[in-house]
Amino acid sequence: MTEENILGEENTGNVKQSQNDDAYFRSIIENNSFYIIKTDLEGNYSYLNPFFCKMLSVTPEEYIGKNSLSLILSEDHAICIETVERCFAQPDQSHWVMLRKPVPNGALFTQWEFKILKDELGNPVELLCIGHDITPLILKQEELRNMVDVAAEQNKRLVNFTYIISHNIRSHVANILGILNISQELADHDLALGLIQESTTSLNEILSNLNEIISIQAHTSLPIVEVNVFEQINRIVQSIQILLNRAGTKIDYKFEENQVMQTNPAYFESIILNLITNAVKYKSPERDLQITISLNAQEQYKVLTFQDNGLGIDIEKYRDQLFGMYKTFHKNNDSRGLGLYITKTQIEAMNGRIEVESTVGIGTTFKLYFNQKIIKTVTV
Question: What's the pTM value of the predicted model, to 2 decimals?
Fold first, then answer.
C-alpha cells in the first residue's frame, strides 16, 4: 500500500467521522426538548427545529425567510430587539431574554439565550437562539403572587373587622351597660328605655351589616349567568322611580339594549342599586341629577362605566379610605359608609374590580370590571 493510499484512507476516515459527528449533533438538535432557531443578520428565520415548530403549531416552510418578530407577542418586540442589539455590541457573549410566543390557547413564556455565530474569519453570519418553556414557572409565580394578594386583602379585612368589633360594637355595649347602671337613678324610665332601644337598634344594624359581608365572603362559588345589561338596570331603575323623580334624575344609556355580560344577577343588582342610590343621596343641590351609563369590552372584562354629576369626592384626601367600611365623605345624616364597601366586596368576589375618578363639585365616575373569562362559576 502506497503512502498516497494510506493518506487517502485516513482522509476518508476523517470525512466519515465528521459526517457521523454532524449526524449525531443534528439528531440532538432535532429531537431534544429545547427550542432552537437561527436567524440571518436581518432577523429573518433561517432555521427552526422540529420541537419549536410542534409547540407553536407552525412549519419551517411557513416561516423560513420571515422576520423572527412575527412569532413574538408585540408587547415583547422592544425587549427582543434590545437583546439582539446587545449581541452585536458584545458578539463574544451570550445574552438572555424572556419572550412570550403566541400559541392557539394563549402564550408560551420562554427563556432564550442569544449568541452570534461567526464564520472562519470571525465575521458574524447568523444569530443562534436556544430557548426553553418556563410557562409553568411563571404561572406558579403568578399563583403565589395571587395568594400573597389574597392574604394581604384578608389581613386588611381582618383589621377592619377587628376595628368594628373593638370600637363600634364595644361602644354600643358600653353605652347600654352605662344606661342600665344609671337607669335606677333616672326618674324618667321611658327616657332610659328609649336610650337602650336606640343603642340596641344601632348595634343590631352593625351585626346585620357584618353578617351580610361575611355571607358574601363565605361563598366558595357563585352562579354566573348571562344577563341583558339594559334590562337588568332598567328593572332596578323602575323599582326606585319615585326616588329618582324626586331628585329630577335623568339616566342616559350609552350602549345598545341587546348588550349582555356574564355575572351573578343578585350581586349585579346590589352593585347597580348601591351606585344609583348613592348618586341620589349625594346629588348636587345646584342641579338635577344626571347619570350616564356606558358599557365596553376590555381584554377579559366587560367594563360598566357609571358617571354622575353629584357632589364629587376629594380623591386625594380620601383615596385610602374610599372603599373602607363605615367611611363617609359627606355630612348626610343617612350616610352609613357601607355601600361602596359592599360593592367592592361583591365585584371582587366575581374576580372583578372597581375603579373611581372624582372631582369635588363636578361628579364621580365608577368603572366596574366584570370578569368574563370564567363563564359558569368563579371561586372566591
Answer: 0.48
